Amino acid sequence: MIAAETKAVATRGFATHGPEAKFEAFEFTRREVGANDILIDIEYCGICHSDIHMAKNEWAAFMPTVYPLVPGHEIVGRVSQVGDSVTKFKVGDAAGIGCFVDSCGECPSCAGGNEHYCFKQAAYTYGGTEMDRVTPTYGGYSNKYVIDEHYAHTIAAAGDLSGVAPLLCAGITTYSPLRRFNVGPGQKVGIVGLGGLGHMGVKIARAMGAEVTVFSTSPAKEADARALGADNFVVTTDPENLTPLAGTFNLILDTVSADHDINPLLGCLSINGVLAVVGLPHSPANIHHAALIMGNKTLAGSLIGGIPETQEMLDFCAEHNITADIEVITPGQIEEAYDRTVKSDVRYRFVIDMR
Ligand SMILES: [Zn+2]
Ligand SMILES: [Zn+2]
Question: Which ligand does the CA of 197 lie closest to?
Protein backbone atom coordinates (compact mmCIF):
# COMPACT_ATOMS: atom_id res chain seq x y z
CA MET A 1 0.00 0.00 0.00
CA ILE A 2 1.11 3.50 -0.74
CA ALA A 3 0.72 5.95 2.12
CA ALA A 4 -1.71 8.78 1.44
CA GLU A 5 0.12 11.85 0.29
CA THR A 6 0.05 14.52 2.97
CA LYS A 7 -0.59 18.00 1.67
CA ALA A 8 -0.58 19.78 4.99
CA VAL A 9 1.39 23.00 4.66
CA ALA A 10 4.70 23.00 6.52
CA THR A 11 5.01 26.35 8.30
CA ARG A 12 7.80 28.10 10.17
CA GLY A 13 6.76 30.47 12.91
CA PHE A 14 7.86 32.04 16.17
CA ALA A 15 6.16 30.94 19.37
CA THR A 16 6.32 31.75 23.04
CA HIS A 17 5.86 28.85 25.47
CA GLY A 18 4.97 30.78 28.63
CA PRO A 19 4.30 34.24 30.09
CA GLU A 20 8.00 34.83 30.79
CA ALA A 21 9.44 32.88 27.86
CA LYS A 22 11.28 34.30 24.89
CA PHE A 23 10.10 33.70 21.35
CA GLU A 24 11.61 30.66 19.65
CA ALA A 25 11.45 29.17 16.19
CA PHE A 26 8.42 26.87 16.00
CA GLU A 27 7.52 24.50 13.18
CA PHE A 28 3.96 23.36 12.63
CA THR A 29 1.56 22.53 9.78
CA ARG A 30 -1.41 24.42 8.37
CA ARG A 31 -4.29 22.47 6.86
CA GLU A 32 -4.20 21.32 3.25
CA VAL A 33 -5.44 24.04 0.87
CA GLY A 34 -9.14 23.21 0.37
CA ALA A 35 -11.42 24.15 -2.51
CA ASN A 36 -12.33 27.53 -0.97
CA ASP A 37 -8.92 28.20 0.58
CA ILE A 38 -5.95 30.28 -0.40
CA LEU A 39 -2.38 29.89 0.80
CA ILE A 40 -0.74 33.19 1.70
CA ASP A 41 3.03 33.53 1.87
CA ILE A 42 3.25 36.04 4.71
CA GLU A 43 5.49 39.04 4.10
CA TYR A 44 4.76 41.24 7.11
CA CYS A 45 2.91 41.00 10.40
CA GLY A 46 2.20 43.95 12.68
CA ILE A 47 2.66 43.81 16.45
CA CYS A 48 -0.63 44.69 18.11
CA HIS A 49 -0.81 45.39 21.85
CA SER A 50 -3.20 42.40 22.07
CA ASP A 51 -0.28 40.18 21.05
CA ILE A 52 1.61 41.31 24.14
CA HIS A 53 -1.37 40.80 26.46
CA MET A 54 -1.83 37.30 25.07
CA ALA A 55 1.89 36.39 25.08
CA LYS A 56 2.14 37.38 28.75
CA ASN A 57 -1.26 35.83 29.65
CA GLU A 58 -2.49 39.20 30.91
CA TRP A 59 -6.07 38.41 29.85
CA ALA A 60 -6.15 35.18 31.90
CA ALA A 61 -9.43 36.24 33.52
CA PHE A 62 -11.45 36.04 30.31
CA MET A 63 -9.14 34.56 27.64
CA PRO A 64 -6.40 32.43 29.23
CA THR A 65 -3.49 31.91 26.87
CA VAL A 66 -2.84 28.42 25.54
CA TYR A 67 0.85 27.83 24.78
CA PRO A 68 2.67 27.52 22.48
CA LEU A 69 1.35 30.85 21.22
CA VAL A 70 2.15 32.22 17.77
CA PRO A 71 0.63 35.73 17.84
CA GLY A 72 -0.11 38.07 14.97
CA HIS A 73 -3.35 39.32 13.40
CA GLU A 74 -2.11 42.12 11.18
CA ILE A 75 -1.03 39.95 8.29
CA VAL A 76 -0.15 40.80 4.70
CA GLY A 77 1.45 38.70 2.01
CA ARG A 78 1.07 37.19 -1.44
CA VAL A 79 -1.18 34.38 -2.56
CA SER A 80 0.92 31.37 -3.60
CA GLN A 81 -1.82 28.77 -4.11
CA VAL A 82 -5.60 28.84 -4.62
CA GLY A 83 -8.22 26.14 -4.21
CA ASP A 84 -10.38 25.01 -7.14
CA SER A 85 -13.42 27.09 -6.13
CA VAL A 86 -11.58 30.32 -5.29
CA THR A 87 -12.81 33.38 -7.23
CA LYS A 88 -11.56 36.41 -5.27
CA PHE A 89 -7.82 35.74 -5.59
CA LYS A 90 -5.26 34.48 -8.03
CA VAL A 91 -1.67 33.46 -7.43
CA GLY A 92 0.53 36.52 -6.93
CA ASP A 93 -2.21 38.78 -5.53
CA ALA A 94 -1.57 40.74 -2.34
CA ALA A 95 -3.82 39.54 0.48
CA GLY A 96 -4.47 40.39 4.11
CA ILE A 97 -5.76 38.64 7.23
CA GLY A 98 -7.15 40.43 10.29
CA CYS A 99 -8.30 39.29 13.72
CA PHE A 100 -10.40 36.26 12.76
CA VAL A 101 -10.17 33.56 10.09
CA ASP A 102 -13.54 31.79 10.17
CA SER A 103 -17.04 31.93 11.65
CA CYS A 104 -20.26 29.90 11.44
CA GLY A 105 -21.38 31.77 8.31
CA GLU A 106 -25.07 31.27 9.13
CA CYS A 107 -26.08 33.23 12.23
CA PRO A 108 -27.62 36.74 12.00
CA SER A 109 -24.24 38.38 12.71
CA CYS A 110 -22.46 36.42 9.98
CA ALA A 111 -25.37 36.97 7.56
CA GLY A 112 -25.07 40.71 8.24
CA GLY A 113 -21.33 40.85 7.61
CA ASN A 114 -20.53 41.16 11.31
CA GLU A 115 -18.61 37.92 11.56
CA HIS A 116 -16.63 39.28 14.52
CA TYR A 117 -19.89 38.99 16.50
CA CYS A 118 -20.68 35.47 15.28
CA PHE A 119 -23.17 33.88 17.70
CA LYS A 120 -20.97 30.78 17.76
CA GLN A 121 -17.83 32.91 18.18
CA ALA A 122 -15.52 33.51 15.27
CA ALA A 123 -12.25 31.58 15.03
CA TYR A 124 -9.57 34.03 16.12
CA THR A 125 -6.50 34.26 13.92
CA TYR A 126 -4.30 33.08 16.78
CA GLY A 127 -4.61 31.86 20.33
CA GLY A 128 -7.99 30.21 19.72
CA THR A 129 -9.25 27.32 17.67
CA GLU A 130 -10.71 26.71 14.27
CA MET A 131 -14.51 26.32 14.20
CA ASP A 132 -14.02 22.63 15.07
CA ARG A 133 -13.07 23.99 18.52
CA VAL A 134 -10.14 21.58 18.56
CA THR A 135 -7.48 22.69 16.10
CA PRO A 136 -5.41 25.53 17.58
CA THR A 137 -4.95 28.67 15.51
CA TYR A 138 -1.47 30.08 15.05
CA GLY A 139 -1.03 33.68 13.91
CA GLY A 140 1.05 35.75 11.57
CA TYR A 141 4.44 35.54 13.27
CA SER A 142 4.93 32.81 10.69
CA ASN A 143 5.62 32.39 6.99
CA LYS A 144 2.37 30.87 5.70
CA TYR A 145 -1.38 30.94 6.39
CA VAL A 146 -4.17 28.83 4.88
CA ILE A 147 -7.52 30.60 4.99
CA ASP A 148 -10.97 30.42 3.38
CA GLU A 149 -10.98 33.18 0.78
CA HIS A 150 -14.11 34.75 2.32
CA TYR A 151 -12.09 35.69 5.42
CA ALA A 152 -9.08 37.08 3.51
CA HIS A 153 -8.96 40.59 2.10
CA THR A 154 -7.80 41.90 -1.23
CA ILE A 155 -5.24 44.70 -1.09
CA ALA A 156 -5.34 47.32 -3.81
CA ALA A 157 -2.39 49.30 -2.44
CA ALA A 158 0.60 49.12 -4.77
CA GLY A 159 4.18 48.31 -3.82
CA ASP A 160 5.61 47.41 -0.43
CA LEU A 161 2.98 45.98 1.92
CA SER A 162 4.67 46.63 5.27
CA GLY A 163 2.67 49.76 6.12
CA VAL A 164 -0.59 48.04 5.15
CA ALA A 165 -0.27 45.29 7.79
CA PRO A 166 -1.41 47.40 10.79
CA LEU A 167 -4.57 48.41 8.93
CA LEU A 168 -5.91 44.89 9.53
CA CYS A 169 -6.39 45.63 13.25
CA ALA A 170 -5.45 49.23 14.14
CA GLY A 171 -6.97 50.51 10.89
CA ILE A 172 -10.35 48.80 11.15
CA THR A 173 -10.59 49.46 14.91
CA THR A 174 -10.56 53.19 14.23
CA TYR A 175 -12.26 53.23 10.82
CA SER A 176 -15.37 51.36 12.00
CA PRO A 177 -16.60 53.86 14.63
CA LEU A 178 -15.62 56.83 12.43
CA ARG A 179 -17.75 55.37 9.61
CA ARG A 180 -20.60 54.23 11.87
CA PHE A 181 -21.08 57.76 13.21
CA ASN A 182 -20.84 59.29 9.75
CA VAL A 183 -17.72 61.39 10.15
CA GLY A 184 -17.33 63.79 7.24
CA PRO A 185 -16.62 67.35 6.13
CA GLY A 186 -17.75 70.06 8.52
CA GLN A 187 -17.44 67.81 11.55
CA LYS A 188 -15.11 68.18 14.47
CA VAL A 189 -13.49 64.92 15.57
CA GLY A 190 -11.30 64.37 18.62
CA ILE A 191 -8.78 61.53 18.79
CA VAL A 192 -7.68 60.70 22.33
CA GLY A 193 -4.22 59.14 22.56
CA LEU A 194 -1.62 59.17 19.80
CA GLY A 195 -0.41 55.56 19.67
CA GLY A 196 -0.86 52.74 17.19
CA LEU A 197 -4.64 53.22 17.12
CA GLY A 198 -4.68 57.01 17.52
CA HIS A 199 -2.31 57.73 14.66
CA MET A 200 -4.55 55.69 12.34
CA GLY A 201 -7.60 57.52 13.68
CA VAL A 202 -6.02 60.88 12.81
CA LYS A 203 -5.20 59.82 9.26
CA ILE A 204 -8.59 58.24 8.57
CA ALA A 205 -10.72 60.99 10.16
CA ARG A 206 -8.76 63.57 8.20
CA ALA A 207 -9.24 61.64 4.95
CA MET A 208 -12.98 61.54 5.70
CA GLY A 209 -12.88 65.34 5.68
CA ALA A 210 -13.24 66.12 9.39
CA GLU A 211 -11.38 68.75 11.39
CA VAL A 212 -9.23 66.67 13.72
CA THR A 213 -8.00 67.49 17.22
CA VAL A 214 -5.60 65.21 19.08
CA PHE A 215 -6.02 64.93 22.86
CA SER A 216 -2.78 63.79 24.48
CA THR A 217 -1.07 63.79 27.86
CA SER A 218 2.26 64.31 26.11
CA PRO A 219 3.11 67.82 24.77
CA ALA A 220 6.04 66.24 22.91
CA LYS A 221 3.60 64.60 20.49
CA GLU A 222 2.23 67.85 19.05
CA ALA A 223 4.62 68.01 16.09
CA ASP A 224 3.87 64.40 15.17
CA ALA A 225 0.12 64.92 15.51
CA ARG A 226 0.23 67.85 13.11
CA ALA A 227 2.50 65.96 10.70
CA LEU A 228 -0.05 63.12 10.67
CA GLY A 229 -2.75 65.61 9.66
CA ALA A 230 -4.23 66.88 12.92
CA ASP A 231 -5.53 70.46 12.78
CA ASN A 232 -5.35 71.01 16.53
CA PHE A 233 -3.60 69.55 19.55
CA VAL A 234 -4.61 69.76 23.20
CA VAL A 235 -2.64 68.66 26.26
CA THR A 236 -5.12 67.02 28.60
CA THR A 237 -3.05 67.02 31.79
CA ASP A 238 -4.19 70.61 32.45
CA PRO A 239 -8.03 70.62 32.73
CA GLU A 240 -8.01 74.34 31.86
CA ASN A 241 -7.04 73.41 28.31
CA LEU A 242 -10.38 71.63 27.80
CA THR A 243 -12.56 74.54 29.01
CA PRO A 244 -12.71 76.33 25.65
CA LEU A 245 -13.53 73.03 23.91
CA ALA A 246 -16.75 72.39 25.89
CA GLY A 247 -19.68 71.40 23.65
CA THR A 248 -17.74 71.42 20.38
CA PHE A 249 -17.05 67.86 19.14
CA ASN A 250 -19.38 65.71 17.03
CA LEU A 251 -17.33 62.61 17.78
CA ILE A 252 -14.49 61.84 20.12
CA LEU A 253 -12.67 58.54 19.56
CA ASP A 254 -10.95 57.42 22.76
CA THR A 255 -8.11 54.97 22.03
CA VAL A 256 -6.49 55.05 25.49
CA SER A 257 -6.22 51.79 27.43
CA ALA A 258 -4.70 53.29 30.59
CA ASP A 259 -7.16 54.25 33.35
CA HIS A 260 -8.45 57.79 32.80
CA ASP A 261 -11.50 59.96 33.53
CA ILE A 262 -13.84 60.21 30.54
CA ASN A 263 -16.05 62.92 32.09
CA PRO A 264 -13.96 65.80 30.67
CA LEU A 265 -14.31 64.17 27.21
CA LEU A 266 -18.10 63.92 27.54
CA GLY A 267 -18.06 67.61 28.41
CA CYS A 268 -16.32 68.37 25.10
CA LEU A 269 -19.12 66.76 23.04
CA SER A 270 -21.65 68.87 21.17
CA ILE A 271 -25.39 68.17 21.45
CA ASN A 272 -25.95 64.67 20.00
CA GLY A 273 -22.20 64.10 20.20
CA VAL A 274 -20.70 60.63 20.55
CA LEU A 275 -17.81 59.38 22.66
CA ALA A 276 -16.66 56.10 21.10
CA VAL A 277 -14.25 54.00 23.13
CA VAL A 278 -11.90 51.40 21.63
CA GLY A 279 -9.27 51.21 24.40
CA LEU A 280 -9.70 48.79 27.29
CA PRO A 281 -8.74 50.40 30.63
CA HIS A 282 -8.49 48.15 33.68
CA SER A 283 -10.98 50.07 35.84
CA PRO A 284 -14.68 50.72 35.09
CA ALA A 285 -15.64 54.23 33.99
CA ASN A 286 -17.36 56.36 36.62
CA ILE A 287 -19.88 58.68 34.99
CA HIS A 288 -23.04 60.45 36.07
CA HIS A 289 -26.02 59.84 33.77
CA ALA A 290 -26.51 63.59 33.58
CA ALA A 291 -23.30 63.77 31.56
CA LEU A 292 -25.14 61.88 28.81
CA ILE A 293 -28.70 63.15 29.35
CA MET A 294 -27.75 66.82 29.16
CA GLY A 295 -27.16 67.15 25.42
CA ASN A 296 -28.43 63.79 24.10
CA LYS A 297 -24.94 62.35 24.20
CA THR A 298 -23.95 58.80 23.34
CA LEU A 299 -21.26 56.65 24.91
CA ALA A 300 -20.43 53.91 22.41
CA GLY A 301 -18.05 50.99 22.15
CA SER A 302 -16.57 49.40 19.04
CA LEU A 303 -14.66 46.21 18.28
CA ILE A 304 -12.73 45.82 15.00
CA GLY A 305 -15.16 45.23 12.07
CA GLY A 306 -16.66 42.50 9.93
CA ILE A 307 -15.28 41.21 6.65
CA PRO A 308 -17.18 43.65 4.35
CA GLU A 309 -16.28 46.71 6.42
CA THR A 310 -12.64 45.66 6.76
CA GLN A 311 -12.45 45.37 2.97
CA GLU A 312 -14.12 48.79 2.66
CA MET A 313 -11.48 50.21 5.03
CA LEU A 314 -8.60 48.69 3.04
CA ASP A 315 -10.04 50.10 -0.19
CA PHE A 316 -10.58 53.51 1.45
CA CYS A 317 -6.98 53.55 2.70
CA ALA A 318 -5.62 52.52 -0.72
CA GLU A 319 -7.65 55.26 -2.39
CA HIS A 320 -6.38 57.86 0.09
CA ASN A 321 -2.80 56.55 0.21
CA ILE A 322 -3.10 55.78 3.91
CA THR A 323 -0.70 53.34 5.52
CA ALA A 324 0.53 53.05 9.09
CA ASP A 325 3.75 54.73 10.22
CA ILE A 326 5.90 51.76 11.07
CA GLU A 327 9.27 50.45 12.20
CA VAL A 328 10.19 47.16 10.50
CA ILE A 329 11.98 44.57 12.65
CA THR A 330 13.26 41.02 12.32
CA PRO A 331 11.74 38.09 14.28
CA GLY A 332 14.80 38.23 16.55
CA GLN A 333 13.72 41.66 17.76
CA ILE A 334 10.22 40.72 18.98
CA GLU A 335 11.05 40.98 22.72
CA GLU A 336 12.71 44.35 22.25
CA ALA A 337 9.71 45.56 20.25
CA TYR A 338 7.33 44.34 22.97
CA ASP A 339 9.29 46.23 25.62
CA ARG A 340 9.28 49.39 23.55
CA THR A 341 5.56 49.05 22.70
CA VAL A 342 4.70 48.78 26.40
CA LYS A 343 6.70 51.99 26.96
CA SER A 344 4.94 53.69 24.00
CA ASP A 345 8.39 54.02 22.43
CA VAL A 346 7.31 53.37 18.84
CA ARG A 347 6.13 55.55 15.99
CA TYR A 348 3.62 54.04 15.64
CA ARG A 349 3.61 50.32 14.98
CA PHE A 350 6.23 47.58 14.82
CA VAL A 351 5.95 45.30 11.82
CA ILE A 352 7.87 42.02 11.61
CA ASP A 353 9.47 41.17 8.28
CA MET A 354 8.53 37.51 7.82
CA ARG A 355 10.01 37.10 4.34
ZN1 LIG B 1 -5.00 43.79 17.30
ZN1 LIG C 1 -21.98 33.16 12.86
Answer: 1
